[in-house]
Structure formats: structure tokens, C-alpha cells
Design goal:
The protein is of the alpha/beta class. The chain contains 9 helices and 15 strands.
Length: 239
């Protein structure tokens, strides 16, 4: 649980950049949002080193939250398809960050953390992130539901959502065709999940064109990083 004087180092680990900021318990930014290029190869050691470099200019934190691009259960990373996947298997990242930063730390899937930061908290809501890969999160009345790695489910021929909508697809297809693909995906998600609201975040959300249904809202990475506070709400996050 949070105390009124806590300051949270909120970290977003992405395939292209690692971002961080300092928040108070109300989600207000206490320092400017900063980012560094994700190291290659993005091994646990290299990622932690980058986080520590960001933390130097964000001093004063008493707790830390990190959104991670892969399957995370109880702070343990099982997959990291857009990082150095083999080196991340069964990594207790909660413990590694706690020991490295010298304060309690919690890790959650990055789409889950962004979802906590942007949803209204009413009804069945879904978050998708468009970046290096394709992230998803589901929330009911503001509470996280079990995480599904929809990114690795087939959508077209032999392509998964990651391969169909991720950064490589954007670079290969171009903006116009990629947007047609996203519209197809949105139609599928509405039919399959029948959500009340859908939020779209991630770096490539800025590349979206066309019209969207009234229950679809765009969210910035800055909006999503506010989930770093909600991650410490055990009721909402399910931690």
C-alpha cells in the first residue's frame, strides 16, 4: 500500500525505448518524463543498467513500478518476445528491481499497467498498445482481469497480431495499409470481446488515421505511465 509521502518511480520498458518519470500518490508528475534507447541485446542486466541511468535524475522515489513487454506473473517474467527473449525466462524482475533500486518494486505487463492508468473504471474495458509489438489488457470496473497474450494468436494466414500490427509490419506495409490492418483488428476485437470501451496507446497510436467508434479512445504513453501509481493499489492491480 501507498503512504501519502510516497513517490513512485514509474517505468515503461519498450522494445525501442525505456521511459521513466516520478509521480506522487495522486499520479501527478513530479519530474519531467525521460527516456533512453532500449539496449541491444536487451538482456536483464542491460535493461537494469538503463533503468538505473534514468533513476539517477529521478531521485527521491520510495517505490518503483515497471511495465514490461511480456508475460509477467507475480513479478516473474516468463517471456519477452520483443527484447532478448531467451535471457528473460523465469526472471524474478520484482526482486531484481527491488535490490537494484533499493526500494520496493513491482512489475506488471506494460499494457496492463497502461490500462490501469487510463481506464474509466466502469464496465468492461480493453487496452491495446501499438508499438514494437501488440499489447492487450482487460479490466472490469477498473480491476485487472487475467492477462492474455493475444499478441501471439494468429490473425491472418501464418501471422500473429504482433507480426500483423507491430513496428515491422508498419515499416514493411506503410502507413496506409497498416491502418487498414488496424481497422480490421478493431472490428475483430469488438465482435469477439464486446467491450464497453477500448483504449489505444503505444508509440504508433499517433500514426492512426480515419474515424473510430465513440467507445474507442486514444491514450498517450504519458497517460499510461500513471498506471505506475495504480499498480500499488492491490485491489485494482490484483497484485
Amino acid at each position: 500500500m501507498l503512504s501519502p509521502d510516497d513517490k513512485i518511480l514509474s517505468i515503461d520498458i519498450g522494445g525501442s525505448h525505456i521511459k521513466a518519470t516520478l509521480l506522487d500518490t495522486g499520479g501527478k508528475l513530479l519530474k519531467e518524463y525521460e527516456k533512453l534507447v532500449t539496449p541491444k541485446p536487451a538482456t536483464p542486466k542491460a535493461v537494469v543498467a538503463t533503468i538505473m541511468q534514468l533513476a539517477k535524475s529521478l531521485q527521491g522515489y520510495t517505490k518503483a513500478s515497471a511495465g514490461f513487454p511480456g508475460l509477467v506473473k507475480n513479478g516473474i517474467v516468463y517471456t519477452a518476445p520483443n527484447l532478448d527473449n531467451e535471457s528473460w525466462k523465469n526472471i524474478d524482475f520484482d526482486k531484481i528491481l527491488t535490490d537494484s533500486l533499493g526500494c520496493p518494486a513491482r512489475v506488471l505487463n506494460d499494457a496492463d499497467m497502461q490500462g490501469l492508468g487510463v481506464v474509466s473504471g466502469k464496465g468492461f474495458e480493453m487496452m491495446i498498445t501499438l508499438g514494437t509489438g501488440f499489447g492487450t489488457a482487460f479490466l472490469m470496473d477498473g480491476k485487472l482481469m487475467p492477462h492474455f497474450e493475444i499478441a501471439h494468436h494468429p490473425i491472418s494466414k501464418n501471422l500473429t497480431y504482433d507480426e500483423y500490427c507491430g513496428q515491422k509490419a508498419f515499416d514493411h506495409c506503410g502507413k496506409k495499409k497498416w491502418n487498414r490492418r488496424i481497422q480490421k483488428v478493431l472490428g475483430i476485437l469488438q465482435t469477439v470481446f464486446n467491450y464497453d470501451r477500448l483504449y489505444i496507446g503505444g508509440g504508433n497510436a499517433a500514426e492512426l488515421t480515419g474515424k473510430f467508434a465513440e467507445n474507442i479512445k486514444l491514450a498517450t504513453n504519458l497517460d499510461g505511465i500513471h498506471g505506475g501509481v495504480k499498480l500499488w493499489d492491490e485491489v485494482a492491480s490484483g497484485v
